[in-house]
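>> received
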Amino acid sequence: VYVQQIDRRGPAWAAGVRPGDIIRELGGRSVRSRAEVDSLLARARIGDKLPILVEREGQRLRGELVIVEKP
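>> returned
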């Protein structure tokens, strides 16, 4: 899933996700669509820590996305 833009104050940025990245896995599951990402995020609870795998310039990078309450 291609990341077009991202909030620098949000949890994805804190997890290391940057514009231009491709999200390959979230929460230990392979994702291929925005709908899959949205579904996994909708099921997560505040405080959950989801492992995330992104691809950037041919390299695979791992991080941890901490779910926070929406402002």
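>> The beta strands are 22-26, 29-30, 49-56, 59-66.
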